[in-house]
Specification:
By secondary structure, the chain is an alpha+beta fold. The chain has two helices and two strands; from the N terminus they run αββα. The protein has a two-stranded antiparallel ribbon with strand order 1-2.
Length: 65
């Protein structure tokens, strides 16, 4: 654990790309600020981001009629 404090990992903000150190100082991790966090949240709410659904619907199957 002490090694993590001495050598924190450097990451980029997923929204703006700003570089930040992965420490307790940044409470909005992985974002650099509350602004970037809220913009990303808004993008999810507006469905600009989505996790693809790979399941097959029950009425669809791979068999041919």
């Amino acid at each position: 654990m002490a090694e993590e404090l001495e050598n924190p990992v450097s990451v980029n903000c997923p929204h703006c790309g700003a570089t930040l150190l992965w420490t307790t100082e940044y409470k909005y991790k992985p974002f650099c600020s509350e602004r970037c966090r809220l913009i990303d949240l808004g993008d999810w709410l507006l469905e600009k981001h989505a996790i693809p659904d790979t399941t097959v619907a029950e009425d669809q199957d791979d068999t041919e009629p």
